[in-house]
Amino acid sequence: ASVLLLRTCLVLLAFPVYLLSFLGVWEPFCRKVFFPFILDKIAAVHDKKSKRHKLELFRSLPDFRSPSGELRLLEIGTGGGSNFQFYPSGCRVTCTDINPSFQESLAKNMKKNQHLHYERFLVAAGEDLHQVPSGSVDAVVCTLVLCSVQSVSGTLREVLRVLRPGGAFYFLEHVAAEHSSWKYFWQQVCFPTWKLVFAGCCLTRELWKNLEEAKFSELKVQHISLALPWTPIEPHIVGYGVK
């Protein structure tokens, strides 16, 4: 009852957004203007908080080079390209995102990170990477994306399809808190409004379970805490799975 009451209060506070959504205005505005703008701001803070974890996570990327010595990397939900700084020199990167409105910040980060080779940018959802041939990449990267895909299991199936045997899937994602915690209580309160405002982002996904159910031959998952001020997305998982 307390969750429903507080949800109602939040709906009232965010009533203009709900009204714009009802009128069909919010979604295109969010996709083209609001979400790219706010994600840039959140990414800047999140990158500072997660830098140590990302440095540790991506340190092993060179281990997954193909026999030719190249490292072909596909990033799902590239956004503005905040991960480019962590990729090894000479890496061949294919960028994908369902939202093509990140081009300005993406171009800026490409210019900053000229140690990489940028292959192409694909407008594609994580669940449908048909433009990428099967077994064609050495590594797939996905950070703060699985929270908002339509199907987590469908996305992971596509990840396994495009990876070559022995390739790796790297992830860093926010997840549901422990059900008995106050953090989970507030995630429940914020869930509907947060999902509407932040382009389908779900606060309560237990993504480690989806990863465990996927057919990785090896899976390393670590639960960590990244406190972002005034947000309910503190619990995270980080790690990689090998095909």
Would you write up a description of this structure?
Strands 3-2-1-4-5-7-6 form a seven-stranded mixed sheet, sandwiched between helices. It has helices at 2-13, 15-22, 26-58, 103-112, 152-162, 182-197, 207-213, and strands spanning 72-76, 92-97, 117-123, 137-143, 163-174, 218-225, 235-242. The chain is an alpha/beta fold and 243 residues long. The longest helix has 33 residues, at 26-58. The chain has one domain (1-189, 198-242): Vaccinia Virus protein VP39 (Rossmann fold). It is globular and about 60 Å long. The termini are far apart.
Distance between the termini: 44 Å
Shape: globular
Poorly predicted regions are none
Portion in strands? 15-25%
Strand arrangement, major sheet: 3-2-1-4-5-7-6
Largest sheet, strands/sense/barrel: 7 strands, mixed
CATH class: Alpha Beta
CATH topology: Rossmann fold
Named at the architecture level, the CATH assignment is 3-Layer(aba) Sandwich
Total number of β-strand segments? 7
SS content category = alpha/beta
Helix content: 25-40%
Averaged pLDDT, please?
A: 94
CATH superfamily: Vaccinia Virus protein VP39
Compressed to H and E, one letter per element, the order equals HHHEEHEEHEHHEE
The Rg value, from CA coordinates, equals: 18 Å
Protein name: Methyltransferase-like 7A
Pfam families: Methyltransf_11
Keywords: Methyltransferase, Transferase
GO molecular function, one term: S-adenosylmethionine-dependent methyltransferase activity
